[in-house]
Recover the amino acids of this structure.
């Protein structure tokens, strides 16, 4: 897969993690990368220029051809404007906990981008030299083909293994659901051909067709989604979490508090980088 990537920087040390993550994921190969520097009000241009030069130098050393673009204004607005001006596959930002690049009334820059971007977003923190453990979280009525496809492609390029996790509610799916299913492992659910087992099997099929060379381990957890996904990350020290976009950018703002909750919490609290895949 060839990526067209928008790598964003405001000159802060946190924003440098975006370039490091692209190298760790080997996404500098077979990619067209544009670096966007955003000069925010009251900030010195010299710091931004130095940061952009260092970022470009590191990526060019990795064999990447790139161009540098400059905008002035608030980070989220300028990143959104640039992303909308061209057909990027991925927007990359560095983030530091819940602060992101800049704090906004509605959340961090990364959180705001996740809500409004029409393309996928990679928010980077705690970047390792190389990525070899990726966790893909799947949910819904059907396994998300776009999320699994992108996650599988990234894992294949990085030479990483995948753990695919589905969090099952502690509430039975129906009156007929066996209580044993509420404590089943992925292997047990797949052997019993339960609803969750069939869901995991379909997810495995998608990953095998997308990235047949990648080792995939299915995982089934029980409880609250955010708590269980964070526990899964800590358990295996995953270096990248891949999730589907929480809602369409044009979705009603009235529904945002309900639709954004899981993705926003994972984006804020995950101890690793987070890739939010937006369906094409």
């Amino acid at each position: 897969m060839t990526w067209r990537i928008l790598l964003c920087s405001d000159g802060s040390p946190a924003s440098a993690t975006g370039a490091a993550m692209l190298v760790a994921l080997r996404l500098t190969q077979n990619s067209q990368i544009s670096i966007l520097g955003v000069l925010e009000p009251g900030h010195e241009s010299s710091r931004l220029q130095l940061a952009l030069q260092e970022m470009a130098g590191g990526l060019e050393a990795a064999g990447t051809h790139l161009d540098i673009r400059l905008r002035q204004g608030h980070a989220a607005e300028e990143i959104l404007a640039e992303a909308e001006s061209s057909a990027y596959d991925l927007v990359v930002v560095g983030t530091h906990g819940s602060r992101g690049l800049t704090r906004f009334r509605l959340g961090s820059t990364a959180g705001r981008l996740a809500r409004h971007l029409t393309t996928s977003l990679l928010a980077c923190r705690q970047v390792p030299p190389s990525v070899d453990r990726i966790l893909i979280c799947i949910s819904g009525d059907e396994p998300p083909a776009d999320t699994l496809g992108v996650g599988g492609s990234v894992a294949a390029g990085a030479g990483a293994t995948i753990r695919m996790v589905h969090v099952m509610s502690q509430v039975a799916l129906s009156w007929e659901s066996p209580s044993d299913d509420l404590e089943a492992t992925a292997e047990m659910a797949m052997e019993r051909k339960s609803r969750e087992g069939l869901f995991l099997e379909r997810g495995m099929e998608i990953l095998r067709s997308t990235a047949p060379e990648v080792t995939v381990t299915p995982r089934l957890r029980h409880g609250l989604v955010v708590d269980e996904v964070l526990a899964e990350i800590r358990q295996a020290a995953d270096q990248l979490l891949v999730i589907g976009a929480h809602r369409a950018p044009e979705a009603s703002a009235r529904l945002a508090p309900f639709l954004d909750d899981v993705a926003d919490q994972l984006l804020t609290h995950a101890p690793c980088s987070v890739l939010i895949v937006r369906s094409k």
